[in-house]
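User: I want to check something. If I give you two sequences, will you return the structure for each one separately, not as a complex?

Assistant: Yes, each is folded on its own. Here is the first sequence with its structure:
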Amino acid sequence: RIRNERSVNSMKALWLSKILVCFTSSSSCWASSANCTFKSCPVCLSDRKPMPIVTEGPDGKAYTTAFRIGRNERHWDSQSLTSTVLGIVMAEELGIAVEYVPAFDVTAAMLSMSNCENWMKGECRRMLTDNASAEAAASAFASGSKLFKDPLPDIMFHPEVTGWADKDRVYPTIDWAKTPLTTSGPIGYHSTDHLYVFKELAEEALNDTGLVLDHWRSYTTPSVLRYFDTPRELIAAGVTPETRGCSSSDELVQAGMDAHTELGYTCTQDSWWLTPSCAAMGDAWKDACVPVLDDHWGFDKRALYQNMALSGMRLAKVTVGYDLQYQLIMSSKHKALFHWWDTDTMFLVKQPLIVNVPGNHEEPLSKVAHQPTLVANERLKVLLRSLTIPNDKLNEMLYPAAVARNAQLFDDDSQMFQKVACDWLRANSELVLSWLPDFRVCAPGHAFDAYTSKCKVCPSGTYSAKKTSSRFLECVPCPRGHFCVGGSVSPILCPRGSYANASGHSECAHCLPGRYADTGGATDCKSCQDIIAGSTTLFSAAASRDDCTCPEQTYHRQDSGCTHCGEGLHCPGGLGAPLQAEGYYGMVLPEYGMDGQEWFFMFECHADARRCPHARLGLCASGRTGLACAECQAGLIPLDDGTCGECNGGSHAIFILACIGVASAILALYLHLDNNVIAKQSQSMLLAGIVFSVCLHVLQQLGTVGTTRIEWVDPVSSMLDFVRVFSFDIEVLSSGCIISQTPMWMYVLKLFIALTIVAIVLLVHVAVVLLRHRGCFRERLPTLIGSVGTLLLLFQMAIVNASVPPFECNTHPSKFSTVAQYPTIMCGEDGGQDWQTMAIIGICSVLLVCAWVSGCLFVIYRLPKQTKDNCEFYMRSFTFLFARFKPDHYWFSAILICRNLLVPLAQLLPDSTSQLLCLQCLQVLYLIAAVHFLPWRVHLANYLDCIVTIVLMIFLSCAALFVNIPDAESIAWISWILIVLIFVVNAIVLCFGHLQFLFRRFRKPFSFFLCHHKAGAGAFARLLKLHLTDLTSRSSRHQHQTVFADSDEPENLSHILDSVISQSEQIVVLMSNDFLLRPWCLGELVAAHLQQPSLKTMPVFWPDFIRPDDAYISKFALCMDCDCLLSHGITIAKIQSMLEWLRVLPGLSLPASVTGDVVSRIAANIVDGFVDQNEGNGDDLLASNQSQTSRVLAIADNSNTEIVATAWILCKMIAPLTAQDPGFAPRCLEENGSVPESAETCMFILSNGAFYKPSFVRHLIQAARLQTMALPIIGHAGFRFPGKAFLSEYQHTASSMLTPRGICENPKVLAQLIGRLCEEVAIAFAPKCYFSTDDLLRMKARAVSDRLVKRQMPRLVLGGDESAAVPSEKSALASQRDHLIAEHEGRHNVNQGLPSKVPFQREGRVLTAETPGEPVTKVNFGKGEVVIESFDSYFDDDDAEIACL
């Protein structure tokens, strides 16, 4: 054996010498067998392009990747070269792409193919399992714990794997039996663990002493120690173990140490492991044992270690690791044995000798691959199974590889592996052919493809079979009724529930729903329609006729098969009876069916879907009964969850307390009305009543909205349920615990509530009148009417709400209609006697409400006449209709009543959409009226009403979001019409404006525009307007035209400017003294200037008017603030340009003394050129007024132009009223005129300072001497009635002012005369006041005319007793009354001009004047109105109208 070992060693030496010569001589040595080098010829066997293979990942997806082969890149050349040989054959013969994966040892290979995480580090943490995902793989790759990016396990093929006995102990967490590993047979050569000795040492010992160092017996004697270094010397030289200590936290290292302990090795404190023979030496082992260098704990050489221990060899082993062991051995510095294995090139160049140790250490090597990889390619499976390389063939690669590495002929080992493997393959082509299968002989399920010259898997729809004339397999189409998957060896019968109606199917098609196949191998499916009409299967691939059933939304009828499931039914499918869906009530009526079949009628559940649960037909929630589960069983009340429950004490109490509360409220309302007097009612109390009525109406409107078919949700649904009580819905008060709740009875009871309220009012009225008013029923009748009217007005909407339910019907899926609020009553003929009775009662009730509304409208219509007639009974009885509204908007209660009637009638519309649309329209119309008129007497109530209406409109808009639209097309058309209406209205307005513009170009609405300053020419402008109106009214040219004064629009400058620009033919400018100081007047003149020359301008200059000069025009911006005109485009530059134009504008001049002839001439001059000559001078009426036979004179201060104009206006307005008796037509007395003897009545136009004017005093004295009747007229709003102090002062000052002007009358007599004049009640007639409209002035003129005709004024007397100079208390109070009215019209301090003997008190807006023994006169100064709250006894009928005004 020794000789044989030596011959092997000699053979290796020979090979090394030959290879070394070949490598070092030239490259021609390589070309002698391959004709090329690796670098110049990378293709080894053929130029077939490698293709990747398809691998199935653990996530069930197919991935196209290269085939991975584990290859050690260092110190394991046998495995690396074998892997390279396999890779070249796979790539160039089978066309499979190859990727070499670093695998430094067997452990890494086993861990990688077992899907272990961190297998490159020798660790195993399970990461990829059968349900692994690409995300998990990506995360592992990013953390560095996985080698590849794809979600496949890090698998590979490993060509050199030994049995690993310790794998279960080292990695207990891995179930190695379940790992997807498969062994493809032996690799052909063996792996043998050896103990090696350096060749030089062996030759030295053999030549010196004849000791054979390559035999184990030499190491049992101490003589061998002379040829080796001792362990002590190695320790001293720095040889340290890889792992210190006798234990380790590394599981792999600890497993090796445990194995050594089991074999009898002893661990020292220096981490050396001693064989039993060495350990027997005790502490001398460092000098008495041969050292052995081991590589790594992970490479287990159990058999060698065991034989070393049992053979008695004195060995001390130290594990130094791969790197240190390689350095120590290759350097040959230390003389020691070392462990390594055969079929490796690591130390081949050292030519070490194998120490012959007893026992067989050879282990066969196998090939291991991942099972899914083998399945992917059948030819690859054959190659892996056939690949074998004997030891002698392996050595042909190992020795060249060892020499090439030692000589460093290649840049890296991968090039060397490729070159050596390629040369070996070329030299062993016959061996390679034995590995490859016959291309034409294919495995079952495959067939030879002549085009590609390789076997291919039979595609889906075919199977492999031999034809009669061939011995090779071919792919044959699969017959009908069968299917064939890819690689099938025989056709497979289609299972039940599937079919194949043609040949070549790769899979059998499942029977579609509605069809079934009850036998295998079917070529078609049978239809369920042949068994049950309309039936189907609830799933595909049905395998039995019993699977045929009715589908969802249908139910089975014996006569017609599967019938469609109508609305309200729930049909889960099957042959059973249908169920009622939640929210629907099903009623079975056999009499409606045919052939004994039942017929289902479905009704939508009332109010709450939970009342009708999802169950069998006809089943209601707990405690409910009746059609649509609308009623509770006797003695039960509705609960919030849709069921009905037992009554409790609280349920009774709620109803009783509600009844007591209603009766108390009625009593309180009656007592309030009985005590209430309008004159004493405060604004806060009135506001409280308005707020209460508005809130009650809102609650009733919400109750109306709650009756619509809208599916509300909480909290709105709970709120709407609560407000139903304000619509007489007593079910909310748990009335079922007190009284019966049949539909008919509940309907009648709701309507009876209104009669009950009226009855309670009657009882309260009788009791109060008997106990409080001593039985005066007639006098207290207005209180009864007011109380009943107030309650009916408050609950009018509730009464209509309670009346209309019989006509509000819901159509159910069964086409029957039931009353919406009483679902147990059917509508129409199906409802029978009950519905007819309810309908008659409802019609009568609505008609009664309509009669009540008509009566209220009639009362409102008659109110003005009754007020004028001072009908106290009428006013007190119907106060509830108008007391809350302003006097001029008393009729607004008619709008409120009509709205309250129409709102509940909206329930009669067919669907919720139209109902909400109608309610929204009503709210919009009411809001427009409320905003426009602001009718409520309390101003704050107007804002409240508008805000509440707007919020209610928003609520209705939100309610529309809950509506299920049944007919979207109708809603779309309505929306389209509304949109079109917007553009139509815009077009109409545009056309109207354009037509108006065209009309104004040819015929303007105003013939003259009077521009004036109201304080300086207000009365004169009105007088001129009267003259111009008379003249233009008789002109054919100016028919349908009027005269416009800018005082007619005192608050709208835009309209005034538009009137100047586009609506007037001529502008008349009254140039009073302060005219140019008014910005609005300047703006009107600028507008007129810009319209020149189309707009004619006629100025009338006052005597004291000064035309603007250059200095005034240049400094105009410093003198005037005209910012209000800038927004209208009127700048300072335009104003200055207008002033330049005004300087040279010709016009008329007004004389200092204005007479009727002057005004007539001015009017005629203005109209001149516009009036036909044959139509007269237009002053006939004035001429008649100036007749000397007039019995009525108007005396004024002729030095005051405005007062004279006031007198002429009064005369012109009275003249038409006295047409039947022209003698009463007044005329104005001029300054130089005198009172004629024919004068009977003189109207004195009073103004401040008039009693100091000579002409006025002279005319007064003349009238007194003639003893004419006197009627004082207040012509100026600021006039102060003369009191005692004034008359006393007048006696001392009058002579000094009047005597020089020819008035020599005794001042005392004059004072008495003035006092007598002021005793008569005066009438205010002030045209200059901004609120004095033409209608108001005519009404006052009519009052003056009536006083003149009745002739009841006192006569003036010159002289008399001194006491007559002071007005009596009574007349002073009357004068004060008229004065207060005049003062309010003039908007000045009401404290001026009050008689000193009449004390007054002012509290806020109420002024009270009291006289001892006389009634109280109280004047309330409201905003924009005067209300006389009580009349004193000396107001006669003639004064009533004025007093009311």
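And separately, the second sequence with its own structure:
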Amino acid sequence: AIANSAEISNIPWANFAGLTVVHDMAVPNSLFSYSHNVKLGCKHDNVDFELFQKPSHEAPIDFLYSLPPMKNSINELLQGFGAYKWPENPISRRMSFAVMVDAGAITKADLESCIDQGKLIVSTDNSPLEACEDCEFVPLSSGCSEDECSIWQYSDRLGNGVDPSSSISVVYSDNQCDLDAFTNFVNERLPQLYELLETAKTEEESNAAILSYATVVNNVEYAKCKNTFDSLYTTKSASVFLKGVKACEDPTNDMDPCCNEELKWGDCCLPEDKNIEIEGVFNSSNPNVIDTVCGTNANAVKELLDSEFSQVLISVSHPEFGCEAKYETLIPKHDQDIFESLWGSVNTCETEVRWGETKAGGESCTSNDECWSGSCINEDVHKRCTPLYGEAITGPLLSCVVSKVDKKLWKHMANVIDVDPAKIKKDGTYTDNEWSDAVVKFKRLVGSPNCVGEDVDSGICAIIDITKAECLSINYIYDWSRQMEWVVDETNINGGFCKKRYSYWEGAHIHGYTENVQEECEMIISGMQGACVDSTTPNGIESWGRDEAECIGPNETWFSFISHEVRGYRLKSRKIYLKDEETGNWIESFEKGDERLCVLESKCNWDPDSRFTSGDEDLCLDPSSLANTTYPRGNFKENGKNMACLQCWGSRCEEFYHSSPPICAVSPFNVDHCAANSGGGPNNDSPVSAILNIKDDESHLQCRRNILQTESECLPIDFCPILSSKENHYDEWEWRCAESSCWDLSKNELSCHYNESTKISYGWHSEWRAGEGACRVEYDVDEEKSFDEKGHCESKGPFLWWEGRGFKPGKFNSAEECSSFCNDGTWPIKQTCSSSGSCNEHCEQCVVGNSWRFPDGAACYLNGSITEYDCHSDLLSTNYEWHWESQLCHRKDFSGTEADCVDLDMSSDASKNLTHQYISCSAQTSSGTCTAYCWAKDYDEYTTCQTAGLDWDWSSSRCKHPTWTVNQATHPTCESFVAHLDANSTEHERWFAAKDCWSNGCSFELGSIGYNAAICAGAPKGCSEQEGHNEWVDGGDDSTATAKMSLLECHWDEWRKCSTKDTCLDAGECDDWFIEHGKCIVPLEPNEWGDRKGCDNVKNPFDGTNYTWGGKMGCVARKTVDAVATYLKESECNSVGGTWHVRAKTQDDCEDNRDMVCSHPFDEWSIFGGIKSEAKCDTCGYKSTPPTKWRKGVWSPSAETPLYWTDRAFSTKNKWEEQSFDESAYHDLVKNSISRYIAEAFKSKVYCELGAYEAWIPAIISMCGTSGNFSEGETNVVSYDLSTVKVACGDLQNQPPLETFEGSIDYKNATCATGENKFADTTLGKVVPLAAKQRVGTGRRISSESVCAAHALIKNSNNAYIGQKLGSGLTVTGINGATVCINPTVPSSEICSNYVEFGIVTINSNGSYSVPTDSNVTINSKGEICFDGSESGSTYVPVKLESAWETKSGPITQAPSISPEVVLDSAPTSIPSIADLNATSPSIIDKGGNTADDSIATNIKVSFVRSIVSIILVVFGLLLE
């Protein structure tokens, strides 16, 4: 139906009576996308209806839905749940759409009546309608908001807007083919389709372009001519013999994997020679129709259809080379989401380059070569690649793309960038200039003017009407969500503004794509409400954020933000889409960032986040005023300059956190009385006051003498104790002189004792005063207190008060110190590395638990019955220490080997008759010898063990008693420790009995008559004395069991990093993490389609519990116990058909000793679990791999991380670049390249499906009808393209062949016909001469015996007939020198027996054949005729020639006939036109040549006139803006 400027198709694909779509390809309108303002109505006589589009319906896939011209409504919905607004792809501008209405009680007669009277109207109006919940449409006036309504806007096919109040009358189509209209439409629409395909910049646009193909085949002008052409021949289902195809031969054979998809789990469809039944192949020309409409040209039409066009349908439907089959070789069915799969590699590159991942996608690097940026930097314990920003991204990003992107996609990306993929490619050989040129071109495409910096996405959200002092006072130093900073801006009345450091607050967030920055900023500032300002810290608030009600401290004031002016600014440029209100189109636009504000912000080189300085330049350059408050490092100086120690990560630097000034802490154990208890001492120091607001790692030590910068100054050598070995190797402090104390320096060791007259106790301390000893005043008996206060000390005599001091040396606080640090994860942080390196993998090993006391993992202790009293004696206490839990006396600070320990037996200790025992955790090489333990055998799983208060050991899957409660095999009972006490026992005996009771894990209580009835009860530390079934595991040596388990606390660690290079390189990890500590794995199962069934759909056969993910190995079996799903035990595994697995510890166990898995070569998770043989898997073209993979250990040599001792500086934070990396531009480039990849495949599909019809329809129909009588020279050839591909001219040898049913092109020896161009569009086209057919088609028939003469058209240079053609011609364009193979389509029955040589001829411009060429011709395995050296634009035809064809004489006047039988038919005297046929057809013929009655007339085109009335779906060919 044609009405106004809109096109409405009337193809009958719906059954009116049943309201059922009968089209083969139907899709649901799952998005419920429909128009609220389009309707179909009629008002005529007793017919009165108005129908609106249905929101839910199914329509042919050939029609395309589109959303109204609005942005993604789902985004708006998600925002209702607190989501951010993200960029949206606008709807494509050109789409066709379908509209379905519910006819209800309207009859066919009603519709016919309306159409006859011109009253069936499609209309829109300006009153949008709202779809309510009951799916009834109500006018806007009912109270619905306009924002809730979805209004579509319309245009005609040229893009001109249509008046919303206009209407279109539905009328009958005349169904008459208009060749001019057909040709004009095809010439306009197909190029437009190709343009849409190649220029798409989003997946949506690409899909829309592909679906726009339907607007061609369903166009009324195209459909009318196509249906008319289709009536000239009939089709059939035919059995075709095909070589080496993967196709179903017998659809009823359920045992054939080519026919039954379910079998693919354990079998595959292999290529074989088969007779394949193909639907819709050419049967014959339709003489009843052709004779009627084609007149004198009838025979020519029949000949052309039977001998030439007949090949088109088999070409289209061929299971291997057909249009769909070829398309699937490029866009496989398994990879329908081609955009996603191709996008993966380029998206990976963007992530790796921008965010600092390695070339392998790892988070840590070991060398610069592993990074796209060429820079591997230290960050905390690990190294990482330097992340890049702005223009710096483009070169490394291009390098990554070239290395990682699919080769087929890179060809199209290279074309878009305008570089030669033959040179710029992975492992390509290109010069520096060629690479630089490529980067420049790439940068031009993916760059745009933009602000570059770490935080430019956040823009600026600021309070603009407060002063600098106010801004500094409201900055929260440690609460990042409330941090503020001052930005100098001379255009502001206050000289600047107060910016929120991070533009975020509880759901409100400014990012690079925020639409309304001002609105978002207002939400952020109002959400914060204000700040609790502390007058004691005017340069920043130390506490965490509190609300106004909590701001009640004595120095606190609430600073409200509510009344202040707020401004939001965008720094980053962005691509946006603006709606053209006139056309309704979304127009792509570029919104440039604010260049002035971009470079306005500055940062402090040592405080880039403005935590301490709040953006204040003065504080940045001289932070000394902060040294006693928030920033103790503020006094770092050198030669009068203010200095800082910086650590850098690429371009970002900040102060090294571990740099610190020296601290001399006064009275560290009594800071509450700092002034009262400080001062005095050997130097008669003045008292100090506490620094109340100090904020550093030692902020609890507020009493300090910062003027004392060295240890000797802080801890006077002539007074403090001599240096001794430190007990805690992790403590950087020196505490030997830390205790506040009172001294009488007038006494010597002999006089240093209790004074009866003064009632004061004294004690001699030989280590004080540099080892000379000093007498300490210890206890005042009269006042019953110690001398731990300065006032008390000085009031009791001429005593010396020592305030007590601890010293922590400064670190990384000078040019010498701040040069590097060892980033190996050990503590304390050191300048240089002592270890050789670190490993990324784990080595199971026995490790020390008490590393604080035994950092080397080894101990040396005394053998024999050494008691605590012995260990604390003067004889041993200097060098030995008692360990309470193990009851062992061990050597202090032992560091050495077993020999070093044993040698102590021979030292000065030998006279004491003492022997030593060495024990080391690392020397234990297995979990069995690592430690001893008491195995609680009553508990065999984690839950019950934990419930019992015991420890579960995953490495051995055993329940153990804690070592602090059980550390011996056997033990005396608790009662035995007090059994010997009686009334005659001494106090010493009683005290030790109580102590023994406690130390052995028992509880002690005095009895009613004291020690005589004392009670020692409980469970002792012996394993055999514990309740239940227990077993002592001694770790291989019971004599060292207690030392290993209690002293060193050895334990087996499966996840400890390998400590040496050799163990690291031998180590690794299997990705069978799901096995954990042992799991029951059952085999994978197929679903009804032969695909892997999800493990959650595989269930326990006994109780129905669903299983869980088990990787490629299978599914992890579970059962239900007490309504909780739990994993099966090893003993239960066989019952469900499973196999028990533990985690692989070696590469062999991980990859070689597990059954292989057969999977798809392009999708490793598409598994064919029934294929168990590797040979079978390979035969099927699949890939056999182990189900799990091993990751090898990598050793990273230790290296110091550089530090930088530098001046404090204030500089510009961001910079403005004209070609800064633009993420959206890069995505456009990539997606356009993917679209071109898809377009190339789809374009060949369109060529294949439409090319023949585009050429044959005008050629054939022009030969029929009164206005179309054929005349010599009018149309010489029918030519059309079969397939096309873009090739890289410098890489033709690697270009895959272009293959079609008709023939193929091999590019290996070809060159581009375009000369020096980088790319060429190559096509393989088909050419059929019509002039040659004219001679045999206008009345002459050849008998069956001499049918080969119809093809005998080849002459030599003497004009003698010397051969016959074997098929149509193929044309190759875009390249020269290719190898071309042509499929001969003339059957063997039509080949003259006297022709014996194969050859090649060309077709001239007038449609005639040339003399045979001198090409060497070969026959390939498919029977195709091949030759080398094609020339662009030439058309080649395969021929068969006489043996001596070059010398045969001529000329002759006609082609030879093998048999003299020639029958000439007379032409009909009158030729009815196609229009006459439609109007007065005497009978209706189906495509099989049978006469049809009126009841089935709707099945063919001639009865198509009024079928529109049976359609409930009105199809518009409109173009939706």
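Because they were folded independently, the notes below concern the second chain alone. The chain has a mean pLDDT of 80. The longest strand covers residues 272-285.
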